[in-house]
Write a structure and sequence with these properties.
heterodimer; A: alpha+beta; 6 helices; 33% strand; globular; B: 443 residues; alpha+beta; 7 strands; elongated
């Protein structure tokens, strides 16, 4: 298992984040209800990052009102990490939408590594088909607490890492 | 997605993510296994360490699936989110779902999902605008916006008949490059004016707003729906194109004679009233006829008249196959648009007819187009090298097969709509080449 521990994030969870094609992001909506969407998570060494089109921006509105979120990394098919494990990351999210057109491009190398075809869709003629899909915000999550289940067995107690100290 | 449907799909997923609010106000997620029992879900108890899962009416159970596609990314995206009450304790926790939402890309394609999400994108941009105290719009360069708003690639529909009229004039030993350039400019201006006007009135009538399955061949440019261009800019653009078309037309009338005026007036009126009230010709099932006349006889005969100052039978006969094939572009493009068109009261031929009749109509029209060329040659009106245009018959066959196989699948139909556009382009250009070869053969 990777020994990488960056900004307090346990190495195996970094490995999950780096391999995950999908994670389930839960936010709290305007009525205090939970709302979950599958998204591709990225890890930049300090924050968990995601990008969302303005087409599917309800989660962005929700995060702006209440930044408390949770990300589940649980799918053995969508996360081809070996050995497999599971994790939940709770944290405070921030929406970065000052440049919807270009700002998210900083995530492109991470995105392309997981979804190589994305480069094809970014060709000008291709982008014309769905221009609003490419107006995107970044979701930046500052992890607060990480729960990690070795072997993915959630009936056993997770290893809990409190990252509030690391963040401070 | 209704609850019963969602529950019936749950066994297709390997695991679920249970989400509950924790004591500190964060959502707390944990993966678990489950089984559906009499409309409720039995969830395997999961351990979340010091922040234990408790009874709650605000629980969510989420299942999701993707298929990794190495070197590409992934596909087969689907997920279901159930909300309801969770009761913990005992060997199995009980989740009583109250509501469900979800998406399966095999049932609702991603492009259609995006089109349906347009109102949310507009709301977000509007809110961002209020936050910043200035309008926030999606960005696209002026060049690409022009390309999209005018639907430039469709200009082949104009280039083909104009070239055909010019070739017919050359066959009759009349050709002026300057007049040919002016003719093309005028025809292009009318066509672009038509494209922009069409978007304006389809937006005003609500047709484009309820079309969730546009393709690059149908459903308009959608620049207004995307907020890339505003209505005032589109109206200005249409006005510029029509003004240019009218000025060029009047210059050509002054040079070639009044005989051209009526054809030009008919062309501009048909183009404008195609979707504009009060006539809204396309809403009355006359769209196909308008397109056939405008991009067939009017353009071919007009280009011929400018060069020769007279009308003749040969260009009229030559205009018939291209008129039919250009009409079939519209006709086939109406297939994916038919539900939105019907909803907005746009009673196109495809809306009025049964699918089998639409497909038979396509075959019959293509057959007539080729028969006209053959008959034209047999009766000595067209030079025999125009028979070269028959080599596109296999393309027509492929389009027919695609139309039949993917009538209800807008995105799978798209490549066949492309073949249909090429059918008009290649057949038309081969007719042009055939007429020009006819000059050589005759000598």
């Amino acid at each position: 298992m990777s020994a990488t521990v960056v900004a307090g994030m346990p190495g195996p969870v970094v490995e999950l984040l780096n391999q995950a094609l999908v994670g389930e992001l839960t936010v709290i909506d305007r009525n205090g209800r939970l709302r979950t969407d599958p998204l591709i998570p990225f890890w930049d060494g300090r924050y968990v990052l995601m990008t969302s089109s303005i087409l599917f921006s309800r989660k962005l509105e929700d995060i702006k009102r209440n930044p408390r979120v949770s990300l589940s990394l649980s799918d053995p098919v969508g996360i081809p990490a070996q050995p497999f494990s599971r994790a939940t990351i709770q944290g405070d999210a921030r929406v970065i939408d000052d440049d919807l057109h270009q700002g998210w491009y900083r995530l492109l190398p991470l995105w392309e590594a997981k979804e190589p075809i994305i480069k094809t869709f970014l060709k000008p003629m291709q982008k014309l088909g769905l221009p609003l899909f490419w107006e995107r915000a970044i979701i930046e999550i500052q992890p607060r607490r990480v729960l990690w289940w070795p072997n993915g067995d959630t009936t056993r107690d997770p290893q809990v890492t409190d990252m509030r100290d690391a963040a401070a | 997605m209704n609850l019963a449907d969602a529950l019936s799909r749950l066994p297709g997923y390997s695991h679920a993510v249970l989400v509950v609010p924790d004591d500190e106000g964060y959502p707390l997620s944990v993966a678990t296994s489950f089984r559906v029992v009499d409309g409720t879900v039995e969830v395997t108890p999961a351990s979340t360490g010091p922040s234990a899962v408790r009874d709650t009416v605000e629980a969510h159970l989420v299942v999701s699936h993707i298929r990794p596609y190495p070197g590409v990314g992934y596909d087969q995206r689907r997920y279901i989110e159930l909300s309801g009450a969770l009761s913990v304790g005992g060997p199995g926790w009980h989740f009583s779902p109250q509501a469900a939402r979800g998406w399966d890309e095999q049932e609702l394609s991603f492009p259609e999902l995006c089109q349906r999400a347009l109102p949310q994108a507009r709301r977000y941009l509007a809110a961002l605008g209020s936050e910043r105290g200035r309008e926030v719009k999606p960005q696209m360069s002026a060049g690409w916006r022009f390309f999209l708003a005018t639907r430039l690639p469709f200009l082949t529909a104009t280039v083909v008949p104009v070239f055909l009229g010019l070739a017919a004039a050359a066959y009759d030993l009349h050709f002026s490059l300057g007049l040919a350039a002016l003719t093309l400019l005028g025809a292009v201006a009318v066509h672009l004016g038509l494209n922009v006007t069409n978007d304006i009135f389809d937006t005003l009538s609500g047709v484009d707003a309820v079309n969730f399955t546009p393709t690059k061949f149908s459903g308009g440019s959608r620049v207004l729906q995307y907020g890339l261009v505003n209505m005032r800019q589109m109206i200005a653009l249409a006005a510029v194109f029509y003004a240019l078309a009218i000025i060029v037309g009047l210059v050509l009338v002054a040079i070639s004679g009044l005989g051209l005026l009526w054809l030009g007036v008919a062309g501009v009126l048909i183009s404008y009233f195609y979707t504009a009230p009060p006539l809204r010709l396309v809403h009355r099932g006359l769209g196909e006829l308008c397109v056939a006349l405008g991009f067939g006889p009017i353009m071919v005969l007009g280009a011929y008249f400018v060069q020769t100052r007279q009308y003749a039978l040969r260009p009229l006969i030559l205009s018939i196959p291209v008129a039919i094939l250009v009409t079939l572009i519209l006709y086939a493009n109406e297939v994916p648009d038919r539900f939105a068109d019907a909803k907005a009261g746009k009673r196109t031929l495809v809306v009025r007819m049964q699918p089998t009749a639409v497909i038979r109509g396509y075959v019959a029209a293509v057959a007539v187009a080729y028969m006209v060329v053959i008959a034209g040659v047999v009766f000595g009106v067209l030079p025999w090298p125009t028979l070269i245009s028959l080599v596109t018959i296999p393309l027509a066959y492929q389009t027919w097969k695609g139309l039949k196989a993917h009538y209800d699948s807008p995105y799978q139909l798209m490549s066949y709509l492309g073949k249909n556009v090429n059918l008009h382009l290649f057949t038309g250009l081969l007719l042009v080449i055939g007429v020009l070869l006819g000059i050589l053969v005759r000598r």
